[in-house]
Amino acid sequence: MSDELALRKQMAQGAQAQATLDNPAIAVAFELLEAEYFKAWKESASTDSEARERLWTAATIVGIVRSHLQQAVSDGKLAQAEIDALNPATPR
């Protein structure tokens, strides 16, 4: 039973991650942050390696967060499939 509870938790987290990705404000925030960080990185002085490194890290973290949410969505879908396999529909 604890396995099913863990799967249900994973499924709920996947649904929350999907809702986050579907939120227009979040989508705009990701796009703006990524664009601003990359623009600042491109415009930074090539001699300012510390600032360039921080900007590059910030820009890539936005993508990492997005990927983490997408992975949670996938994991939630897999959890749903496992729950469905554990509880097959009974014939009527």
Give the SSE map.
Blueprint: H1 2-22, H2 24-43, H3 49-86
Helix pairs in contact: 1-3, 2-3
* Class per helix and strand makeup: mainly alpha
**For the CA atoms, what is the radius of gyration?**
20 Å
Number of domains: 1
Q: State the share of residues found in helices, binned by percent.
A: over 70%
H and E order: HHH
**Secondary structure tally, helices:** 3
Q: Summarize model confidence as the mean pLDDT.
A: 93
Shape: elongated
| Percent of residues in beta strands | under 5%
List low-confidence stretches: none
> How many beta-strand runs?
0
Largest sheet: none
Structure description:
This protein has 92 residues and is mainly α. The chain has one domain (2-84). Helices cover 86% and strands 0% of the residues. The protein has three helices and no strands. Helix 1 (2-22) packs across helix 3 (49-86) and helix 2 (24-43) packs antiparallel against helix 3. It is elongated and about 65 Å long. The mean pLDDT is 93.
Which short descriptors sum up this protein?
92 residues; mainly alpha; 86% helix
